[in-house]
Structure formats: structure tokens, C-alpha cells
TrEMBL record:
Ranges of residues in domain HTH asnC-type: 5-68
InterPro entries: ArsR-like_HTH, AsnC-type_HTH_dom, RCK_C, RCK_C_sf, Tscrpt_reg_AsnC-like, WH-like_DNA-bd_sf, WH_DNA-bd_sf
PANTHER family for the chain: LEUCINE-RESPONSIVE REGULATORY PROTEIN, TRANSCRIPTIONAL REGULATOR AZLB
Molecular-function GO terms, alphabetical: monoatomic cation transmembrane transporter activity; sequence-specific DNA binding
Name recorded for this polypeptide: DNA-binding Lrp family transcriptional regulator
Keywords assigned by UniProt, alphabetized: DNA-binding, Transcription, Transcription regulation
GO biological process entries: potassium ion transport; response to amino acid
Pfam families from the UniProt entry: HTH_24 (PF13412), TrkA_C (PF02080)
Domain RCK C-terminal per the UniProt entry, residue ranges: 158-246
Amino acid sequence: MGLQIDVIDEQILYFLTEEARHTSAPDIAERVDVSAPTVRNRIRRLEEAGVIRGYHADIDYEKVDGRLTNHYICSTGNRNRQEMAQRVLDVPGVTNVREIMSGKGDLRITVVGDDTDDLTRIAQDITSLGIEIDDEDLIHREYFRPYAPFGPRDEVVSPVTGVAGLAGDADVVEVIVREGAPMAGMTLQEANEAGLVGSDILVVQINRDEEAITPTGETQIRPGDFVTVHSRSGVTDETLEAFTDY
């Protein structure tokens, strides 16, 4: 099962896909309306889960001494497709290999060569592995854009990122503390004394920057904190408003 992500994660992925090199966590935070530490924490989580696999330069090889980019549609037959894909990557000039869920044409290979003779050499190296080249095309231009459904929303993004119902009326809620929230800047003890959180509310964990905090009464709640809240009787709208002003 894949990692479950929310609308904030989706927009982070969108803006990184759009321009990763010149897009900082504060830039994304401003556009998504969360804090920069929240963005950094979420990027790290997406990286650790393998959703973000890396950050790569988009290179126009034709502008480098007129190099040629070719696309091969290949078949592995009954061989181990994953193993063959890894072996193809070792061929000098191969830049990308995709496994396709089909019998015929189950590998799509992109290569870069100095000239047509070099492309011929690469093709021979590929076929020497026992892979059949079914078709090929010389690539002129490629066009990319971020995945549109992950793009900016017109509606306000909810700061509540997850709700889990437990036995009885108990809830566990994950929430991002907003700027201007009543609890922002308060310690948990101060928030309790001010009546912002009831006696059945327990802040289980706070994720802040690179740190996972097990809170005490003296722990201060800060804007951008990713807070996990447990309540035996269910988390009310009033409690959520104390963290989010939403």
C-alpha cells in the first residue's frame, strides 16, 4: 500500500516538480500557507518513504555538441525484467529505463549518443544482453509539467491533516498549529489554565523542524508545529480552533 498523503503534501510535490533547485521550504510554505519547518518535515517524510526519489537536472543533450537522444522499445522475453533493466543501466549512454507491465515492449530505454555511430554501438550493447529492440525513435524535444491535480487550490487548506477514531468516542487528531492560533506561543499548562484545552485532551507528540518532542506542561506550542492530539471523549471543534484558529 502506498503512502497516504494530504493536500499539503500534494502541493509540496507539485512545486518541487515545477522547480526543485530554486524552490526553498520558505517559498513553498508561503504558497501553501504553512510554516517552513512543516514543509521541511514533510519533504523529509516523503523522501524517507521513497515518494521523492531524487532531484535531477533536466539536460538538453542536443545543446552539448549536438548529441542525439534515442528512445528504444524493447522486449525481455521470459527473462527477469527488473534484473534486465538494471543490466541495461550499466550500458554506457543509457540514461533511463522504464519497466512496462506488458509482455511485448516491456522495457522503454532512453539513450544519449555522440552521433549515429554511437547510437548503433549502444543498440548493439543492449541486444548483446539478449534484449530485443522492437522499435526506436529519435527524440527531438521533450516537454514536462507538474501533475496538475497536485497543483494550487483555490480553497483554504485545512490544518487538520488526519483523524483516527478509536474505541468509544476517543479520537486521535493530527493538526498543524497556525499563526494567530489562540494556543500559539503558550505552554500546555498555560493553555490548560486558560481553558483552551480540556482535562481529557492529551498532546501526545509535537514534530518541530527535525525534532520529535514528547511534551510536558512547560512545552511551548509554536506556529508550524505538527501536533498529535488524543481525547477520550472526542476532539471538539473548540479544541481544534485553539490550535488552528480555523
